[in-house]
Design brief:
Blueprint lengths: L9 E10 L4 E8 L5 E8 L3 E6 L5 E9 L4 E5 L2 E3 L6 H13 L1 E12 L10 E11 L10 E7 H10 L5 H17 L5
Parallel strand pairs: 4-9
Antiparallel strand pairs: 1-2, 2-3, 4-7, 5-6, 5-10, 8-9
GO molecular function, one term: hydrolase activity
Protein name: GDP-mannose pyrophosphatase
Catalytic activity: GDP-alpha-D-mannose + H2O = alpha-D-mannose 1-phosphate + GMP + 2 H(+)
Length: 188
């Protein structure tokens, strides 16, 4: 198989087996590239945006929060799901204000990534923000998190040491670091 079209699976049937507030689970029957049939279980997700705020002194703001499925506290960049009819950039700015209590004058799109390609259609859009102004956090009623300010360089080191292990945060920090080194809106 040297043509990528020979790798495509075709949907024969699709059934939603669970519908939640955030996630929808599907059970599909598919036709494989060789003509045989198989099944796929997958999760439909509305998508999300993550944002890395950079302060004038080179610090960044992250948040600590407990993640129930893993049963532990993670250090993460501010992020959240995209609401219906909302643009990813608006989500990033909203989450920056809600979770970190910050707004920004400037932000840059860093691209997207797919955190669970084997079982979900989730896409996370990544941003970096600067010219920061502080406000009060406005977290959701069921959201408990603590802000953590640290140096950008230290956060990147924590990705490499494994201290920061959340996928969206790792990708946002590394892409953000690379973008900052190339474009330097200001020196840190």
């Amino acid at each position: 198989m040297n043509d990528s079209h020979e790798l495509v699976e075709r949907t024969i049937s699709s059934k939603e087996v669970f519908s939640g507030r955030l996630l929808h689970v599907f059970f599909d029957e598919v036709s494989l590239p060789d003509g045989s049939r198989s099944t796929r279980e997958w999760i439909k997700h509305p998508g999300a945006a993550a944002v890395l705020p950079v302060f004038e002194n080179g610090d960044i703001m992250m948040v600590r929060q407990f993640r129930y499925p893993m049963g532990q506290i993670f250090l993460e960049v501010p992020a959240g799901k995209i609401d219906p009819c909302e643009e990813a950039g608006s989500t990033a700015r909203r989450e920056l204000k809600e979770e970190a209590g910050l707004t920004c004058e400037h932000y840059q799109y860093l691209g997207r990534f797919y955190p669970g390609i084997g079982y979900s259609d989730e896409i996370i859009h990544l941003y970096i923000a600067w010219d920061i102004t502080s406000y009060e956090q406005q977290v959701d009623e069921d959201e408990f998190l603590l802000k953590k300010r640290l140096s950008f360089r230290k956060a990147v080191e924590m990705v490499h040491s494994g201290e920061i292990a959340d996928g969206k945060s790792m990708v946002t920090l590394l892409r953000g670091w690379h973008w900052w080194q190339e474009h330097q809106p200001f020196s840190i």
